[in-house]
Automatic annotation (TrEMBL):
<comment type="function">
    <text>Catalyzes the gamma-elimination of phosphate from L-phosphohomoserine and the beta-addition of water to produce L-threonine.</text>
</comment>
<dbReference type="InterPro" id="IPR036052">
    <property type="entry name" value="TrpB-like_PALP_sf"/>
</dbReference>
<protein>
    <recommendedName>
        <fullName>Threonine synthase</fullName>
        <ecNumber>4.2.3.1</ecNumber>
    </recommendedName>
</protein>
<keyword id="KW-0028">Amino-acid biosynthesis</keyword>
<dbReference type="InterPro" id="IPR029144">
    <property type="entry name" value="Thr_synth_N"/>
</dbReference>
<dbReference type="Pfam" id="PF00291">
    <property type="entry name" value="PALP"/>
</dbReference>
<dbReference type="GO" id="GO:0004795">
    <property type="term" value="F:threonine synthase activity"/>
</dbReference>
<keyword id="KW-0791">Threonine biosynthesis</keyword>
<feature type="domain" description="Tryptophan synthase beta chain-like PALP">
    <location>
        <begin position="94"/>
        <end position="322"/>
    </location>
</feature>
<comment type="similarity">
    <text>Belongs to the threonine synthase family.</text>
</comment>
<dbReference type="InterPro" id="IPR000634">
    <property type="entry name" value="Ser/Thr_deHydtase_PyrdxlP-BS"/>
</dbReference>
<dbReference type="Pfam" id="PF14821">
    <property type="entry name" value="Thr_synth_N"/>
</dbReference>
<comment type="pathway">
    <text>Amino-acid biosynthesis; L-threonine biosynthesis; L-threonine from L-aspartate: step 5/5.</text>
</comment>
<keyword id="KW-0456">Lyase</keyword>
<keyword id="KW-0663">Pyridoxal phosphate</keyword>
<dbReference type="InterPro" id="IPR001926">
    <property type="entry name" value="TrpB-like_PALP"/>
</dbReference>
<dbReference type="InterPro" id="IPR004450">
    <property type="entry name" value="Thr_synthase-like"/>
</dbReference>
Length: 491
């Protein structure tokens, strides 16, 4: 009765949420989804009275029905006990005439922490049920990598390998990853971009040779990216949390609709909001905010998804993505769970790099989703102007969401601040007219302008030795993963 998850590309096989978390991705290449999600309706009155932690348990209990309440309470307590610097976990602050939801108060200063402090807990429970071990393969464009490393560091019966695009993440993001300690962690720079790394990782999950090597040690290859449902579900909580805070501050009445502006590349963050909407969150519009890699803006405007374009390296590297994996889940829901349609689109994307959806489907998507993008020059201008007008310092990703949200007509508008400005200190300083070439010095200088000091995990980076120096080709990834399985899990 708990086998409620299925693949976006094939409706035949049903599995539990523990299996879905443990597997990460379906054997047919699809992503795990719960077709009856919209029948799960959450009670807003309850949510508005509860703490963040209580809401996390409440929401997770609905979405992961084979986890017991006690298991979830323990997971949530371990994840959010004392790891976040804000007691609210994700505080909401008014900046100008929009509300900024600060998602970067976790251990690695990015929104990924909200889910990646919790996923290792959920994974451990799932592993115990399956009597297995897991090797987590993670592709990152900057933020997921460090958050996943920190979350899975020395977690029993797990190992983690992170692939970041060499020279395509910020200096601080790079240092965060290559200084990672732990007996079960491995970090590689790859010669390529995020899309190359993520596509290869997806291939490796299903690679028969690797699966055989892993099976020898009762190890399963799985994911810490938002393709894993266990990564996505914890992100739903902060959408409700923002709503709760607006109700409790008297800005809205229970039941009023609000809008969200979400800077996103892989479409996971905004999809979490959409899941909230399906479960009863009153939403007017979701604004999908992009940088110069505006494949999503083009899709939401024309219905044509086309990744055949130049990959642009920007000052918002975490969003430098042209294959937005989680769009697949949106297509599944808006097409009324038409797995054949989704498979057709994904096959076309793999073969030609593009696909087009029918006009009626586009219309349906546009009734809830709007979009916009700005480039680096505009992003810096937004950071500078926002600082002058409001005294707030935004990181480049948050600045993109802020600008798209500010330009929209809907109010109240909640815009997601996805990373600490300290992770991008040089570019942020530059945007407010201060030059500093050294990343550590830049963080120090930024303290003169920001409200808060450099987060502890970033301030200590200069003193940590570089432990991971390997830069490999995309073709080497398979062999390196195979070697690491042998090294880590061989008794
Ligand atoms: N923006 C990510 C890229 C991967 O996205 P995810 O949400 O699927 O993990 C990053 O910063 O690494």
């Amino acid at each position: 009765m708990h086998e409620v998850y299925e693949s976006t590309r094939n409706r035949d096989r049903k599995i539990t949420s523990k299996q879905a978390i443990f597997e990460g991705i379906s054997p047919d290449g699809g992503l795990y989804v719960w077709p009856e999600l919209a029948q799960v309706q959450l009670d807003l009155t309850t949510i508005c009275k509860q703490s963040y932690q209580e809401n996390a348990v409440y929401i997770l209990h609905h979405l992961l029905p084979d986890f017991t309440k006690e298991e979830l309470e323990q997971c949530v307590a371990n994840a959010y006990g004392n790891t976040f610097s804000s007691p609210d976990i994700t505080p909401l602050r008014k900046v100008g005439d929009v509300y900024v939801l600060e998602l970067f108060h976790g251990p690695t200063s990015a929104f990924k922490d909200v889910a990646l402090t919790l996923l290792p807990q959920l994974m451990s429970v799932a592993l115990r049920s399956a009597h297995q071990k897991a090797l987590i393969l993670t592709a990152t464009s900057g933020d997921t990598g460090k958050a996943a490393l920190a979350g899975f560091q020395d977690v029993k019966d797990t190992g983690i390998v992170v692939f970041y695009p060499d020279h395509k993440v910020s200096q601080v993001q790079y240092r965060q990853m290559v200084t990672q300690r732990g007996k079960n962690v491995k970090v590689y720079g790859v010669k390529g971009n995020f899309d190359d790394a993520q596509s290869k990782v997806k291939e490796l999950f299903l690679d028969p040779d690797l699966r055989e090597v892993a099976a020898k040690y009762h190890v399963r290859l799985t994911s810490a990216n938002s393709i894993n449902i266990g990564r996505l579900v914890p992100q739903i909580v902060y959408y409700f949390e923002a709503y709760k805070q607006l109700v409790n501050q008297g800005v809205i009445q229970l039941g009023d609709k609000i809008s969200y502006s979400v800077p996103t590349g892989n479409f996971g963050d905004v999809l979490a909001g959409y899941y909230g909407y399906l479960m009863g969150l009153p939403v007017e519009k979701f604004y999908v905010a992009s940088n110069a890699n505006h494949v999503l803006t083009d899709f939401l405007t024309t219905g044509i998804y086309d990744r055949n374009r130049e990959f642009i390296q920007t000052i918002s590297p975490s969003m430098d993505i042209l294959i937005s994996s989680n769009l697949e889940r949106l297509l599944y829901y808006v097409s009324n769970c038409d797995a054949d349609f989704v498979k057709g689109c994904m096959d076309e994307l793999a073969q030609t790099g593009k696909y087009q959806i029918p006009a009626d489907l586009l219309k349906k998507i546009q009734s809830l989703f709007d979009c916009g993008y700005i480039d680096d020059v505009q992003t810096k201008a937004v950071i500078g102007k926002t600082y002058q007008e409001t005294n707030e310092i935004l990181d480049p990703h948050s600045a993109i969401g802020y600008e798209i949200g500010k330009a929209a007509k809907e109010r109240p508008m909640v815009t997601l601040a996805t990373a600490s400005p300290y992770k991008f200190a040089q570019d942020v300083l530059d945007a407010i007219g201060v030059k500093e070439a050294d990343p550590m010095q830049a963080m120090k200088k930024l303290e003169d302008y920001a409200h808060e000091k450099t987060p502890k995990g970033l301030a200590e980076l200069n003193d940590l030795p570089i432990l991971h120096k390997d830069v490999i080709s995309i073709d080497d990834m398979k062999q390196d993963v195979a070697n690491y399985i042998e090294e880590l899990f061989h008794d």
